Amino acid sequence: MSFKKFCFIVFLVGQFFGVDAIADDIETKTKELTGLQSRILQISRTVNNLKTQKNTLIAELKKLDKQYGKSALYWQHLKNQISALRGELKKNQQDIKDRQGQINAQKKSLEAQIRVAYRMGRNDKLKLMLNQQEPAVTGRIMVYYEYLNKLRLKKIEKIDDDLQQLRALKQVQHKENARLNEKLAKSKLEQSFLIKTRNAREQLLAKIKQRFFSKKQQLSQYKTSEKRLKTLILKLQQLRDPFPLEEGAVTEFAKLKGKLPWPVQGRIKKKFGARRMGSRWDGVLIKAKSGTPIHAVTRGRVVYADWLRGYGLLTIIEHGQGYMTLYAFNESLYKSVGDWIEAGTVIATVGQSGGQTVTGLYFGIRKKGKPVNPERWCRKVR
Questions:
Q1: What domains, with CATH codes, occur in the chain?
Q2: How many other C-beta atoms lie within 10 A of the C-beta of residue 227?
Q3: Who has greater pLDDT, 336 or 14?
Q4: pLDDT (tens digit, 9 = 90+) per residue, 324-348?
Q5: Which of 19, 213, 237, 380 is the most exposed place for a label (fewest CB within 10 A)?
């Protein structure tokens, strides 16, 4: 065999084994790529599942917040009814006592008259009628007899009337007692339901916090909530009707700067502009007890009253020319969209809806959609 042929054979063998090695490498890389794509797909599914779970939990939080708010409002309504019924019962009991006292007094007076008549004797009237010796005296005595008889009849009629009214008062008392017991039973059930709803909400919040609320996620959540609120306010401004207040109302609102009352009494826990997990507070957080009444700071119209993610049960009141006041994290909402509100009207109660862990009121003021510091608009409190 010549040298050239030998070299040619070696070249062919090398080419054969080289192609085979490249094919093996391609097959290995293809398998790695397929595995990587499978992992990416698996991670993508996991992320989507987490998002779905989070949205489901947030939807459940919204449901529980609204359910708790309605239940708390109904319970407060029941408490007011119970208080009114107790007041009516107290008045009714006093009326019964007064009526019974009148009956007793009438009976004593009648008993005294009967004793006098008995002492005068049953036949005195007949004797006087037959006695012709002193006609004038007899006439006067006869008139006296008639007067006593009429007086006794009136007293008897009065006692009978008082007894009928007493029976009517006792019937009313019986009905009011039945209504009170019914309201008390409903109040007890509603209170039990409130406790169960609150416990379920706390468990849900713990689950959300455990699964999804790292500091980075909280920051993202705050920024998303703020963006959502800005979008809502912009939408409300675009959709609002002409504000039918009397002339100069907007100027009056502007002149209220530094004079507005605070919606609730309490310590400002978070000031306007304070840091909030890398973000800033665009309102103030006022610490107050759960169920504390929240008052509108001035006249206006409700343009939003519903649950908003990140703010819970939220009421927004429009005051004209882009001025709005915001009240969030509420326990219950007392007013609906379209309601006109006067200064001092109770519009909601303090709570911790929207995923808050402490009770308090978020209070914000907007001027043409931009946040302004409520402390510069409300009265200074020592």
A1: 67-211 (1.10.287), 215-377 (2.70.70.10)
A2: 11
A3: 336
A4: 999 999 999 999 999 999 999 999 9
A5: 380
